[in-house]
Amino acid sequence: MTDYTLEICAFNLSSALIAQQSGADRIELCASPEEGGTTPSPGLIRTARELLRIQLYPIIRPRGGDFLYSDGEYLTMLRDVDYCKQTGCNGVVIGLLKKDGSIDKERCARLVEAAYPMGVTFHRAFDWAINPYEALEDIISIGCERILSSGQRPTAMEGTDLIDQLVRAADERIVIMPGAGVRASNIVALAEATGASEFHTSARLKQASAMDYVNAGMKEEQSFTEASEEEIKKIKEALAGLSG
């Protein structure tokens, strides 16, 4: 029987708390959903750590865009890793590439060392790597515990063939965790097609503002992203059905 793990990408505190009460196993804490996730503020990290009982992994990503970082950005990442460790997080999420599309092994290894004894996930920077199989071996050698991937395609369902091959190539040396477009409607098919046991989703929806007064002259939408309790519970139920 396979034990399945569900990680929720939470872009705010309310999403993290909804995920916890809905049965999620781990939180990837991020800011800036419009940029695909950047490092959350120290205040959000600390508050989340105080309120969450489940595992907490903040993403360490100083900006959106590519994964080729300057020396100053890298120094910022090292300091953010240290903050997460001092705050009692369970792990961090990183990803750095070189100009040629290979894994920046040296700097990633330093981040993993700085994070110890926290765990480290390598995020979807993997999906921009030039050779996924070389990248897999590099990330294993660095000491990461899992790779978040959509199989180098826009969504995990589109990338099932590569994800399946990566799970086989990893041979239990590292966890391959599908993410991107993962929903209750496809989680069973994704699990069966890939053999993966950990899954990543934001399970998010747009939440309307609760403001009574809205200045119509501003002509700006005030909705925000929040995790869906119903969606997370449906995913957990689907995974429980697979386990049983």
Q: Please name the fourth-level CATH homologous superfamily.
A: Copper homeostasis (CutC) domain
Shape: globular
Question: Structural class given helices, strands, pairing?
Answer: alpha/beta
Radius of gyration: 18 Å
Q: Tell me the helix content.
A: 25-40%
Order of helices and strands: EHEHEHEHEHEHEHEEEH
Low-confidence stretches: none
| Count of DSSP strands | 10
**What is the CATH domain class?**
Alpha Beta
**Biggest sheet: strands, sense, closure?**
4 strands, parallel
How much strand?
A: 15-25%
Number of helices: 8
CATH architecture: Alpha-Beta Barrel
Question: Could you report the average pLDDT, rounded to the nearest whole number?
Answer: 96
CATH topology: TIM Barrel
Q: Tell me the span between the first and last alpha carbons.
A: 7 Å
Walk me through the topology.
Blueprint: E1 5-10, H1 13-21, E2 26-29, H2 42-51, E3 55-58, H3 71-87, E4 91-94, H4 105-115, E5 119-122, H5 132-142, E6 146-149, H6 160-170, E7 175-178, H7 187-194, E8 198-201, E9 204-207, E10 224-227, H8 229-243
Parallel strand pairs: 1-2, 1-8, 2-3, 4-5, 5-6, 6-7
Antiparallel strand pairs: 9-10
What would you say this structure looks like, in words?
- The protein has eight helices and ten strands.
- By secondary structure, the chain is α/β, with parallel strands linked by helices.
- The protein has one domain: TIM Barrel.
- The strands form three sheets. It has a four-stranded parallel sheet with strand order 3-2-1-8, covered by helices on one side.
- Strand 1, helix 1 and strand 2 form a beta-alpha-beta unit.
